[in-house]
Amino acid sequence: MKLSVVIPCFNEEQVIDEVYRRLDTLLKSYMEKAIIDDYEVICVDDGSTDGTLAALKRLAAADKRVKTISFSGNFGHQPALTAGLYHAGGDMAVSLDADLQDPPEIIEEMIKRCEGGADIVYGVRDNRQEDTFFKRITALAFYKIMTLMGVNLIYNHADYRLLSRAALDAFQRYGEVNRFLRGMFPSMGFKHSIVTYKREKRFAGTTKYPLRKMVSFAVEGITSFSNFPLRLAFVLGFVNFIAAVMLGLWTIVSKLKGISVPGWASIVLPIYLFGGIQLMFIGILSEYVGKIYMEVKHRPVFIIREMYNFHDKDHGSNP
Ligand code: UDP
Ligand code: MG
Question: In the chain, N or C terminus with fewer CB closer than 10 Å?
């Protein structure tokens, strides 16, 4: 069994050597214990402007198990992870942040779960004590909003996860350009398992996720997985339309009762009526735009986990 470890690195020169040292000792001990037969460490340099790439090249020259992918510029954390996973040649791949906040020591447990039948093993932190108050509440709000919109997310799971070959192959078939991996993996199906761990402080350096990147990450997550904001137009329009109908009835009643104000109905009613009708049709349009949007993603329609007794001329003999 060969293990691939994928690490996105953006301006991480201060931590690279330490990550390598920790992983090297750990993974060699796994080989001695025959947990794995071999491994590779794929570092993706996401357009760093410091000495990260030089450090990675140095490591790659000294150890052929270290592989480096370097981007032409800063594409972001998710694209970096994607590139690493696409190039992972192992039977299992685990993705890990460069800053050692997620302890690599739990990989052993992740591998066990995977061998026990889980195709996706999520690393979940047991608390958020290391985060600032601001990061904690914004993260909680984000999970709540996503759940309300019907997106399946694993609470307190970042991008520390192990994937079986089957899950890796499935991942390669997702054609979408906008990538929000935390939403993609739970939507794939497959058996999964959760390993909890205590999140450490960043080993060195500062966070590479300033507020600006956090906001765009959240918007990406919502709009990549949910049509809900588009549907809002229809709901509002419908409510407006019903209100206009009620108002119309009211003008007739007030006319009969003799308490109507001249000119009121002819001005106010059309505002509500046409406002409602317009919003409703924007809502209907949105439904179609939403369909097109889902379609252009070219997501796989189904994902096969395994096949049995399939020979060339013998289709459909799956037990
Ligand atoms: N990262 C990246 N590209 C970016 C931002 C971050 O590849 O544009 C990497 C970064 O090097 C780290 C991981 O993504 O390995 C997570 O970033 P960080 O630890 O700074 O985020 P935090 O833990 O503060 O949320
Ligand atoms: Mg971090």
Answer: C
